[in-house]
Write a structure and sequence with these properties.
375 residues; binds NADP nicotinamide-adenine-dinucleotide phosphate; alpha/beta
Length: 375
């Protein structure tokens, strides 16, 4: 999972992706009947599942899935931890001689350059793969069509765009990082149904139930950095670590980088070691992006959430809503500060999902990012 040290992570060396994505899943999949060879879509589904399994362990590289399919047999691979083999190499390794004449299906365009590992396109050509199917093109400047071209130049037919919107969504954080140089920003808060993130006395534990809280650890595990404000540290002193029952991080280096917006962070704060930052948020995102942070999870509180929202820096809002009413107007709101003076000036996002999580709801909303050409 994440890594990223205070001294900085080497800028992402191997990239991939495509700038188009629909927020909602729309692709359909035709399942094979009898002994029919699986369709490209079915194989891409397998590749997407494989990529999901390594979502938290590959950054600053993309989480990619690959399937080598031949004579009704499928060999599945996914991206290893940084420095290890890419998904294509893992799948080709499993396939061995069966790769000759096979169809190789990969969520992201294979790399054609030498990063910490050799070009995947060379390995694909050398293995004698007969045809390649790609979910999306890689927007990383080092790839950006070069992988598809290299395969085409070697005489291998390539189909691009299978389950494109699904793959683009799965690689959203990676795509934003490679297109803008900044992390994908997720703002997560837990609120009562009447929109309060804490009671008037500042207490907020616990608004939501154990299932929602477990999910937040998963969200942290997928994020390369986690950020809160000085107010939250003063009130709650959160550790901001990933604590998952089923898939524990393998060591301290697997924990997300912790960032606290403050001029001074107490040495004994539970969030230590952390970066204490008090400059412009735009500069912070540039800096984190340069460190290879693909996803930043902003966990509040109300004034920090307000700052990120008003600066237009949030890509996805993840709000857990509990069946709880504080029942007045004196609790702490989701965003603390002056808002739009009239409805006509209200900010509008786009719903992504509403999901029941234990006794709570998870509501996800996307900002239409200029980086996707949607704003
Ligand atoms: N339910 C939830 O999801 C949730 C999550 C987190 C927190 N909370 C609750 O929210 C409350 C804390 O919220 P809060 O609004 O008081 O504090 P906060 O948003 O956590 O921190 C705000 C403080 O951060 C510092 N800061 C530095 N740069 C900033 C920037 N660019 N924008 C905003 N702040 C910046 C400032 O302190 P300095 O002037 O000292 O630098 C500011 O007063 C607590 O009651 C906590 O329990 C709830």
């Amino acid at each position: 999972m994440k890594r990223a040290s205070r001294s900085g992570v080497a800028a992402a060396a191997e990239g991939r992706d495509s700038p188009r994505s629909d927020a909602m899943v729309s692709d359909t999949v035709k399942r094979p009947r009898g002994n029919e060879q699986p369709s490209d879509e079915v194989l891409m589904e397998l590749a997407i599942s494989a990529a999901a399994g390594v979502r938290a362990t590959t950054a600053p590289n993309p989480w990619v899935g690959c399937v080598v399919s031949k004579d009704g047999q499928q060999f599945v691979g996914a991206t290893s931890r940084p420095g290890g083999p890419h998904a294509e190499i893992v799948a080709l390794g499993k396939a061995g001689s069966a790769a000759r004449g096979s169809t190789l299906v990969t969520t992201l365009e294979p790399c054609a350059h030498r990063g910490r590992t050799g070009p995947c396109t060379d390995a694909i050509v050398d293995a004698g793969v007969g045809r390649v199917v790609v979910g999306i093109r890689d927007p990383d400047a080092a790839v950006d069509g070069a992988g598809v071209k290299a395969l085409g130049d070697a005489g291998i037919p390539v189909t691009v765009g299978v389950l494109e919107s699904r793959v683009a969504e799965q690689l959203r954080a990676y795509r934003k990082h490679r297109i803008t140089g900044r992390p994908y920003v997720v703002l997560k808060l837990a609120a009562t149904l009447d929109g309060r993130i804490a009671a008037p006395d500042g207490s907020s534990r616990w608004i939501t139930g154990p299932a929602a809280r477990e999910e937040v650890h998963r969200l942290r595990a997928e994020s390369d950095a986690v950020l809160v404000g000085a107010g939250t540290v003063a009130r709650d002193d959160p550790a901001l670590t990933v604590r998952l029952h089923d898939e524990l991080p393998s060591g301290p280096s697997d924990q997300p980088l912790r960032v606290v917006l403050t001029k001074h962070l107490a040495r004994d704060a539970r969030a230590q070691p952390a970066i204490a930052y008090s400059g412009p948020l735009d500069d912070l995102l540039d800096e984190l992006g340069g460190m290879g942070i693909l996803q930043l999870l902003v966990e509040g509180g109300a004034r920090v959430a307000y700052s990120f929202h008003h600066a237009g820096l949030v890509d996805r809002y993840v709000i857990y809503i509990a069946p709880v009413l504080l029942g007045g107007s004196d609790g702490i709101p989701l965003l603390e500060g002056s808002g739009a003076p009239s409805m006509s000036q209200a900010w509008r996002g786009q719903w992504r999902s509403v999901t029941r999580v234990g006794d709570d709801l998870r509501v996800e909303m996307d900002a239409l990012g200029a980086w996707e050409g949607l704003a």
